[in-house]
Amino acid sequence: MMLWGTKNFDGTNGDAPFASDLIVWKTLKNGRKVVNIADSDNDPSCKLSELVVDQLMASKDSPGAGLGTGRPLEMAVASSLETDLPKLDPSRTWTVGRGSEKISDFLQYKHLEKVNQLVNRHAELRTTLGTDYLIKPDVTVGLPSRHEWEPRFLHAAVSCKWTIRSDRVQNIRHENNQMIRHRRERLPHLVTVTAEPLPTRLAAIARGTGEVDAVYHVAYGALDRAIGTAGFLSREQRDAWEEVTEQGRVRPYSDLAKTLAYW
């Protein structure tokens, strides 16, 4: 049985250290105020987001300044991994990139550069193969090569999605499927980081057939506690949250660096 709001993760609540700075109130053009993770056209999303931000602010000394969405999430994830990974495993040399590296810069996908050269020279190949195999993950985690003539090893590709909508879900699946199909040697960790509040939308990406290892939620603890007090939530939403958390498909952000460092 789910015990809402009572989970502990190594003494933490599972929230990202930057969650209360990113998840804040904003004012729409019509003057209405909503939390910036909410779907403003969806009442349960708005109400649940309000509870989440209340939970975050309850454990913070001062209100979050608000850093926007999207790109700031990538920056925060990259920065936290760059800090945490060397502490968790100082024996390895970690490199963390943010949106600047193609997968073909890494060992498992280096061969795609040759494919790209052929595609650029032959228009018929562009029609047949397309060019969507040259993916630039939002955040990359690399490890040193075995030999000086080899490129770095792609240890993880992190997709950062501030919120989840159906089109964004399909984009994650498509890119990860490309990385699964085209890699040589071991597959990197393929994970998603999000602040989406609605459990059914989280389930839309967390469920699947292996395209995503796990979804890491930046306000996992706050959302868990919010769901426990949200009397307005439907049974479908509650069941979805229980499903994805009990199965480990949605995990606290505090688990991400440990997963990458230890596995």
UniProtKB/TrEMBL annotation:
It comes from the Bacteria. Pfam families: NgoMIV_restric (PF09015). One of its GO terms (molecular function) is type II site-specific deoxyribonuclease activity. InterPro entries: NgoMIV (IPR015105), NgoMIV_sf (IPR037083), Restrct_endonuc-II-like (IPR011335). GO terms for biological process: DNA restriction-modification system. This is Restriction endonuclease.
